[in-house]
């Protein structure tokens, strides 16, 4: 997020307090993540799903944990702000963290798209959606990093997916195909994610900020790399 703010020169376009909201949201957006997604929380009727009535249980939890940490005197980075600013920051952080629920991805991206090509930084609605988009980009752009940095994190993510789906199978809960070790591989997972989620998101963001084009390059290279691996494994299977 810090890098995105500098690359896009956002500090000249939106207020310092909105930058604080975005940085705090990016930092706190996955606090105390249990490693099982919202579908699992809801299907397994976990304590979090019960507490948040099945509405983005994880993101509500991450946000509640963030404000609970900030309520401790030794962690309260907001202790010197006015009541009015506190309300603004709290509202913004809640909006940005709740926006990281991937179930809302298409809605948020469509809203952002609808503001182009006349995006207006002084329009509150436009600015708030951009802030959500920036936090979302920070959340899911592991593949924008060099392969040597991105791949170990991807391995952790797949481990998390498979751990969840194994546990769902044991408990007789619904299993999402994209998490099922019998249905996905690392290359297929990444080609789908990059093609259908990451590139469409970057494509909209770079319309507003053409200066970000270069950070899409590693994403395209990763897509090529995983597509090649996927084709090679398909050829291997068909010739066997
Ligand atoms: N297959 C991939 N899925 C990814 C990748 N990066 C992110 N994601 C998906 O997004 C969510 C983000 O939510 P979070 O609460 O876990 O941060 C994550 O769970 C994945 O479903 C990726 O590189 N490949
Ligand atoms: Zn999350």
TrEMBL record:
Question: What reaction is this protein's catalytic activity?
Answer: 3',5'-cyclic GMP + H2O = GMP + H(+)
Query: In which pathway does this enzyme or protein participate?
Result: Purine metabolism; 3',5'-cyclic GMP degradation; GMP from 3',5'-cyclic GMP: step 1/1
Query: Biological process (GO) annotations?
Result: signal transduction
Which residues does Zn(2+) 1 bind?
Answer: 29-30, 139
Matching entries from SUPFAM superfamilies are given as:
HD-domain/PDEase-like (SSF109604)
Q: Which Pfam families match?
A: PDEase_I
Any one Gene Ontology molecular-function term assigned to this protein's record? metal ion binding
Please indicate if the UniProt record lists Hydrolase as a keyword: yes
Quick one: signal sequence residues? none
Query: Domain PDEase spans what residues?
Result: 1-233
User: Could you identify this protein by its name?
Assistant: High affinity cGMP-specific 3',5'-cyclic phosphodiesterase 9A
Organism of origin is Cottoperca gobio
Gene label:
LOC115005113
